[in-house]
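Quick one:
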Amino acid sequence: MAEPQKAAGLNIALVESLVKKHFGPEFTSKLAWSILKGRYVPSDQPRRLGAPQRLFGIRLWWKTIGEFSDNIGVRLELWRPEYLRQAEALVEDYTAQARDTKIELYPAFMPLPAESRQGTARPSQGVGRPPGR
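Output:
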């Protein structure tokens, strides 16, 4: 995935500085999932957007909130709705400062597990039976 992002012309230093400006100094865009280690590791390219999860000052894990994708242009897939304003500002600033490449924001909010269970049938109702019988 590193080579296509270089070919797309993404300004890596600008992306990282805008992430720190709009999301906070702890956030980074240079995370990648390591299959061998089973965790997120630092990357040289912008791949995942996240912040460290700390316990007593020790980083335990990364809270990922989005992913940079370059399959149809360069876009930021945002997974958490609470960061929408910061992501919009990041995309707007990047588009204004980088002349040749544009980042498109793609909100892809995933429902929480409790929200997805609300539409399921109740056990007493049964599946395929009309209500009330």
